[in-house]
Records
---
Amino acid sequence: MSIRIQEASFDPGAELNAFSELNDGAGAVVTFTGLVRSTEADPIESLTLECYPELALNQIGAIAADAHTRFGLLDETVIHRYGTLKPGEPIVQVMTLASHREAAFEAAQFLMDYLKTDAPFWKKEASGGETRWVEPRDVDDEAKARWR
Amino acid sequence: MKILYFAWLRERLDRGEEEVSPPQDVVTVRDLISWLRANDEAAKLAMQRPEIIKAAIDAKIVTHDAPIAGAKTVALFPPMTGG
């Protein structure tokens, strides 16, 4: 298991290659990379993530350990950034290694669903010279609830 | 004990942390939030809906029922928006 909380950017492809090289004969790797979104309908200039690093390591470590057991993962990595990011930059990457694809897919989804509501990060969007805190969304709570 | 504030709670209070010495009858996180609100107008306004505030004691998530005795650090923050 590897959990990284960092301000520095990362190269999603290089991270995937490094993770896959250590596969030890496993059959399936799933990667999810979350990027800063900015659309024509809802453009933003930047996204700032505030973080409580000590709690983030504890929370994400617990979520990843849960995923490891629940889906029989062979390995898992979570990288989560904080600081001010521009549209298109990577925010988060989840990688799961399993014998078969179902477990790898499901575990990646599970990890992301939990990170949304249980990882101590707070997002603030800057747009048109103004900033606003991103509100938690009910659909994120619902997404997490289906794993109970 | 030290209290940490994050996100809009930190902004509304205009401070990220503070040292406090609550009296003996402040037993739980719920009591602590009530005590902070009762003693500071900014805290009263910042936590108008105490029930939505999340808490952690020494970097472990807790409910509002958790006792604060022995805590070094209590963190108070809005719902998380990670991922």
---
Amino acid sequence: MIPLFFSPFLELLLAFSLTMALVLAYFAIVQRDLVKAAVLSAGQSIAYAFAYYLLAAPDILFAYIPIAVGIYTVLLLYAISKTERFEEG
Amino acid sequence: MASTIVLFVLTLVSVALGATAFTPSLDLRPLAEFYLENCLNQFNKDLWAASPEAVTSMLWDYRGLDTVYETTVFFLAIIGSVAAFRFGEAFLRSYEESKRKQRREEGLSLIVKVITRLTFVLIVALSIAIALHGHLTPGGGFQAGSIFAVAPLLAIAAFSRRFVEEFGLTKNTCLAIRTTGLITIALIALIPLLSIALGFTGVFIIQNQPKPWALQPSFPGFPVYLGPIWLAGTLILFNVAEFLTVASGFTLLFILLSLPEDFFRRLMGK
């Protein structure tokens, strides 16, 4: 018997956001253009931040969003600007 | 092609698992129950941390040593990066270099500059609010410091680094603010020990409230309320000090990283 009130929205959203994180991480790894790869990894961080919100962890959220989307992405872009933009091979 | 199929199958499997609403267990562990029952327990003040926010009271009171070690690790990371960019006259030279050239358009366009002015103020105000309310709402010192660090980053990108330096945001300013924050954290952690001189014997480091089961007389504890305002003993002081430390540490990192490339080339060439 299915329970009368069956609402798996939280778990579905969690599954969706973490799968999006996996897909974006995969595309960030195989991407040749390093600037696009940095932006894709920022997208993966946004999907993770959504997952942290769904798991009711606001403290981690406040620390994760500026560090992963702001600081880490800018650090990567600084490093890319001092070396080459396109990966070889 | 194979990777696309693998990703598609993974998506289907995870969404199907999500649709079953599988949750491991809704019971709390005994440790979580202990923290939730005791962090703001007005009837049994033996083990309370005087704050409605369980996460911050765990960070700075129940597991305060862990946060002290984490601040030490962050401090060492910033020391390492300052040592990597250890040229003493760095800011002076990059400032004078641009003055000698003709003043051309620097920074991004006017639209970006106007919007950066607005968002800079919003980001700074939000981070200070999160730091000051760390003992009442989610947030705290480290979170507020990381949020603050995005603002000078935007300013360096939209205006130029030289412009930001003219406003006094130099390496030495950031180092001074960071040292102030770290000394404040060390002082607040050690003040209970200093009270041994006044005759209190039940004292511990990073102690927030008096412990009635320790040797009497115990350390009387930091003030919990100031009229209607709820300070939470050491929590608000630690949050503000950690905010200063982390914000200035991250800002220092960006000031050093955004030194122009040809400045280093010229330095290495000599």
